[in-house]
């Protein structure tokens, strides 16, 4: 399998986050990464940065090897990087490219659907709200669902995750 270098992709990342060009592949990020430790190196921040430097879009976006979505954004790699490369921002750029190409985890779509329908990723449970009231805690302010939906429609987030407004409105009418 031939490796295709995509300089346009590489230059897009460097343009958006110039710190990428400072990386000299010392491996500090990977040695400190808790996800790299747990996955026994299958998730490897240094490898993602290397593939970014080389413009290996096919591996980063299409094949997702290593899988950038595994990053927990703990920022430890950023804190310890001797060259001050902002790895998590670079990973977010790659994730955004993955989303643009329709290559994202099912959990991303599920969470997006929850936000579209409830204005939050994890809706408050009535038991929690009751308990807060019993404890005298302040009432939680929530965004209006229609406001969040308007924002997400305007940014076309609903289209990105292939949200079907028609089937959702049909389900609500049937209930």
Task: Jot down its keywords.
single chain; Fumarate Reductase Iron-sulfur Protein, Chain B, domain 2; 175 residues; mainly alpha; 2 domains
**Helix and strand string, N-terminal first?**
HHHHHHHHHHHH
Which stretches are low in confidence, meaning pLDDT under 50 for 5 or more residues running?
Answer: none
Number of structural domains: 2
Give the termini separation. Answer: 52 Å
What is the beta-strand fraction? under 5%
CATH topology of the largest domain: Fumarate Reductase Iron-sulfur Protein, Chain B, domain 2
Helix content: 55-70%
Helix tally equals: 12
Extended strand count? 0
- Level-2 CATH architecture of the largest domain: Orthogonal Bundle
If you average the pLDDT, what whole number results?
90
Q: What is the CA-based Rg, rounded?
A: 20 Å
**CATH homologous superfamily identity of the largest domain:** Alpha-helical ferredoxin
Write down the CATH class of the largest domain: Mainly Alpha
Backbone shape:
globular
Largest sheet, described in full?
none
Structural class: mainly alpha
């Amino acid at each position: 399998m031939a490796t295709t270098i995509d300089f346009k992709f590489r230059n897009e990342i460097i343009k958006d986050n110039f710190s990428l060009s400072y990386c000299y592949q010392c491996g500090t990020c990977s040695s400190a990464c808790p996800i790299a430790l747990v996955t026994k190196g299958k998730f490897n921040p240094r490898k993602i940065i290397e593939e970014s430097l080389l413009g290996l879009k096919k591996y980063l976006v299409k094949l997702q090897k290593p899988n950038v979505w595994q990053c927990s954004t703990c920022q430890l790699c950023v804190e310890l990087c001797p060259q001050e490369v902002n790895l998590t921002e670079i990973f977010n750029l790659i994730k955004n490219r993955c989303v643009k190409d329709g290559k994202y985890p099912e959990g991303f779509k599920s969470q997006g659907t929850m936000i579209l329908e409830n204005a939050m990723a994890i809706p408050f449970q009535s038991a929690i709200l009751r308990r807060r009231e019993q404890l005298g805690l302040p009432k939680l302010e929530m965004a209006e669902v229609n406001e969040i939906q308007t924002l997400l429609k305007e940014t076309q987030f609903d289209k990105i995750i292939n949200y079907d407004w028609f089937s959702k409105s049909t389900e609500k009418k049937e209930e």
